[in-house]
């Protein structure tokens, strides 16, 4: 086993990227600081616009060679800098989708001089035409009511009705509010549902996902739960500890469900 897979490197992604061999990762999921002044316990989100865009270009240049030729990249952005960053990436990769993450923010007052922004902009880019993409792994099953409504003879036996639908490019998934069971102590933690979809669609089983800005470790947790490897960087040591504790909790959960499974099997074979 290589010494960079399934590791959380508590260091600057720019400095650490040399640890990852070129053309070795299947997928990059990047959730960099947004240039909006958020507090990650460091100054990483305090750059002015020019310095921010320059830094974005720097880590993109360092990260892209790590991708395999059929690899892809998802990048979480906001409307504020997504136009500039999409242009940067389009010079190097093929843009496959702009995904809108509707964070399902409830309607409460909001801005008075503009429309309230309630979405994240996610760019999905691929290295080449033959990029890995497993749509079947992320199809959304039709509910019983919809299936029933499509019971006319022209729909009978329709494969798409059985295998579920394409999730489309607007993903409506609740943000992790304070009481959410998944919520950890990180200001911009992403929901596992979103990151899991990216991994299942764009990283083959047993493959490896690179997350240069791990935060609370959502990519690492989702990758391990899906049978993929991960690697990545995080500047803040408290967040590095948080990632390790989320991974430990997942391992403990997996062990318990394995034991329960074995007990059920034993009980059913004894009866
Ligand atoms: C938007 S958050 C990532 C959140 C993460 N996706 C999650 O679900 O928890 C960005 C993270 O990048 C970290 N960061 C900022 N600059 C960094 C750098 N140069 N190298 C490594 N990590 C960095 C910040 O400390 C912060 O935790």
TrEMBL record:
Keywords: Methyltransferase, Transferase
EC number: 2.1.1.-
Gene Ontology terms: cellular component: cytoplasm
Keyword Ligase listed: no
GO biological process, one term: methylation
Family: Belongs to the N(4)/N(6)-methyltransferase family.
Protein name, per record: Methyltransferase
């Amino acid at each position: 086993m290589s010494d960079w897979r399934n590791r959380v490197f508590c260091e600057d992604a720019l400095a650490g990227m040399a640890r990852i061999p070129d053309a070795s990762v299947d997928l990059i999921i990047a959730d960099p600081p947004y240039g909006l002044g958020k507090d990650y316990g460091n100054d990483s989100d305090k750059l002015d616009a020019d310095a921010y865009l320059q830094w974005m270009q720097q880590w993109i240049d360092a990260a892209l060679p790590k991708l395999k030729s059929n690899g892809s990249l998802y990048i979480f952005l906001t409307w504020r800098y997504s136009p500039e960053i999409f242009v940067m990436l389009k010079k190097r990769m093929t843009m496959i989708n702009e995904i809108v993450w509707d964070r399902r923010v409830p309607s409460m007052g909001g801005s008075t001089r503009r429309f309230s922004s309630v979405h994240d902009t996610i760019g999905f880019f691929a290295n080449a035409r033959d990029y890995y993409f497993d749509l079947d792994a992320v199809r959304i099953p039709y509910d019983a009511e919809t299936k029933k409504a499509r019971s006319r003879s022209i729909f009978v036996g329709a494969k798409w009705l059985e295998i579920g639908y394409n999730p489309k490019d607007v993903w409506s998934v609740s943000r992790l509010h304070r009481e959410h069971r998944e919520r950890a102590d990180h200001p911009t933690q992403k929901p596992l549902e979103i990151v899991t979809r990216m991994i299942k669609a764009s990283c083959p089983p047993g493959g490896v996902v690179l997350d240069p800005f791990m935060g609370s470790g959502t990519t690492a947790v989702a990758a391990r739960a899906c049978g993929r490897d991960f690697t990545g960087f995080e500047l803040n040591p408290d967040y590095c500890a948080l990632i390790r504790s989320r991974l430990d909790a997942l391992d403990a959960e997996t062990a318990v469900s394995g034991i329960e499974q074995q007990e059920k099997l034993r009980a059913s074979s004894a009866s």
